[in-house]
Write a structure and sequence with these properties.
Helix 7 packs antiparallel against helix 10, helix 7 packs parallel to helix 11 and helix 11 runs antiparallel to helix 14. Helix 6 links the parallel strand 4 and strand 5. The protein is built from 15 helices and five strands. The protein is elongated and about 85 Å long. The longest helix has 26 residues.
């Protein structure tokens, strides 16, 4: 190797890219990998159809207090899947929203006159946070469309959004749609990196490709980097597909994709550890199965408010990177992500990444025969 002129040796990044392309092709032509990657997509489609059929006939109540008996009230009936109920005071609106109504609106007096005189009136809309995200989205979109249907001037009316049934300081933003999205995204990442990354490395060892590469200018770190890039691409493609299927639950796409990318990188390090320490397929499959279960189970606890969990359970859950991701990702999907409620989760994921890749770096320095 020392006799080869340095000018004739390809750069490390070129070698890594060649390895990545070969591994991507290997994933695409391997039926087992395609089944693994297709499972969360198929499950998302099935649950999407089920949830859609259930929500399609699910009307919800919205109460209205029309102070001036405006003509606009008749236009609101055009919003689908909403049962409108007229009340006689603002107090009744608040009482209904705090109870079982999904939302409530207050139309001010002289509404029609204000609109006709290009003096935008203010509509107060109350949202019941416990009504479910899908209902909130339908109501917001329907009310906004009806407001802009009044006139084409900017703005024809102003909507002042208010929230009801908000539990301050508690992480209790659970809805079935959000939970399913979080679960399938984690399953997709786990299958892509925990189940594929170790197998790529194991196959390259068993078929002799790794030994041949190690006899060339390629180092083990180059192989690990190339295979990691391939699995990260697979993870991002599949998780993005899952999120697109559940697009109605994703509002902040840059933050959601960034969070998914971070967890993919972190779990890829764990997948590399499994691939390095396992010398046979049976042990590799066992480690992947146990690791996958341990990563998915913590997400089950997101159904309950974190503050209600027993202290021992809470601290055990801190040992799972997917739990921190689930907390952060749920905030993102609920549009409640702030630096205060995201910082701990992001820092925890970064620390897990440093730990996993530190172990990978240490193991990669061992002689090939001992790996």
């Amino acid at each position: 190797m020392s006799d080869i002129p340095l000018t004739n040796q390809p750069s490390k990044w070129r070698l890594r890219w060649v390895i990545s392309k070969n591994e991507i092709w290997n994933i695409l032509r391997h039926p087992n990998y395609l089944v693994l990657l297709g499972t969360p997509v198929f499950m998302s489609l099935v649950f999407g159809i089920m949830m859609g059929s259930l929500q399609g006939t699910d009307e919800f109540i919205v109460v209205v207090y029309d102070q001036g008996k405006s003509s606009w009230i008749t236009d609101l009936n055009e919003i689908p899947e909403i049962e409108w109920q007229i009340v006689n005071s603002e107090a009744e609106v608040l009482e209904a929203v705090e109870a079982d109504a999904a939302a409530g609106i207050i139309i001010p007096a002289h509404f029609d006159t204000a609109v006709n005189s290009d003096n935008p009136p203010e509509i107060t809309a109350y949202i019941n946070q416990e009504a479910g995200r899908s209902k909130m989205i339908k109501f917001r979109q329907g009310l906004t469309d009806q407001v802009w249907g009044i006139a084409y001037d900017t703005p024809p009316a102003i909507i002042e959004w208010e929230e009801a049934n908000v539990n301050e300081g508690r992480f209790s933003d659970f809805t079935p749609e959000i939970y399913i999205t979080v679960m399938f995204v984690i399953v997709a990442i786990t299958l892509a990196v925990i189940d594929i990354a170790p197998q790529l490395l194991l196959e390259s060892r068993q078929n002799g490709i790794l030994s041949m590469l190690m006899a060339s200018p390629v180092e083990l770190t180059d192989v690990l980097f190339g295979q990691s890039f391939a699995t990260l691409i697979a993870s991002m493609v599949i998780t993005t597909t899952v999120m697109l299927i559940n697009y109605q639950n994703v509002t902040n796409w840059p933050l959601a994709i960034g969070c998914v990318f971070l967890l993919s990188i972190v779990l890829n390090g764990l997948g590399l550890i499994i691939g390095i320490i396992c010398a046979d397929k049976g042990r590799c499959n066992a480690y992947m199965a146990v690791t996958g279960i341990l990563l998915v189970v913590p997400v089950w606890f997101l159904i309950a408010p974190i503050e209600d969990l027993p202290a021992i359970v809470y601290w055990i859950l801190q040992l799972a990177p997917t739990f921190h991701f689930g907390v952060a990702f749920t905030h993102i999907l609920n549009d409640t992500a702030t630096l205060n409620n995201m910082a701990i989760s992001i820092v925890a994921l970064l620390l897990f990444g440093v730990l996993f890749y530190g172990i990978v770096h240490r193991l990669s320095k061992r002689p090939l025969t001992t790996i």
